[in-house]
Amino acid sequence: MSNIKDFTVAQLKRAIELREQIEDLQEQLASIGGGPRLGRPPGPAKLAKKGKRRMSAAGRARIAAAAKARWARYRSGTKAAKPAKTGRKKRFNAAARAKLSAAAKARWAKAKAAGKSKL
Asked: Which of 3, 45, 54, 101 has the largest count of CB atoms under 10 Å?
């Protein structure tokens, strides 16, 4: 597209005349059709326009209740209550440890017999 500085005065006057003719013709066309000016047909985005997403009143109430609870916790200075730990780890009993140990020894014996230093 050319820069407007590159046009002569005569070319600019001709462009203004053409623009005015186009506007007159569009007005005439609109008066015949009885509707708005006809231009480019709407693109796919305008044809497939969807409504706004709306949140239910129950959803808003849940969010508001959660926010109020968070602020109440913040203002009281306490953290969220976590389940108390029993302080006891889960451990294998002696029989289970012996069984795992025997299986590991058997794996290592088999690997060493095959001449491996890694499993």
From this structure: 101
Q: Where are the domains of the chain?
A: 4-38
Three-class SS of residue 100? helix
Q: pLDDT by residue (tens digit) across 5-25?
A: 788 889 889 999 999 999 999
The vertex-85 CA angle with 80 and 89, nearest 5°, equals: 145
Nearest-angstrom CA–CA distance, 30 and 25:
9
Residues 6+ apart with CB under 8 A from 4: 12
Total length of the chain: 119
Nearest 10 degrees: Cα torsion 77, 82, 87, 91: -150
Provide CB contacts within 8 A for 100, sequence distance 6+. Answer: 92
Sign of the torsion formed by the C-alpha atoms of 63, 65, 70 and 71: positive
* pLDDT recorded at residue 17: 93
Q: For residues 55 and 114, give the distance between their C-alpha atoms in angstroms, rounded to a whole number.
A: 67
Question: Tokens 């609870």 correspond to what residue?
Answer: 69
Regarding pTM above 0.70, the answer is no
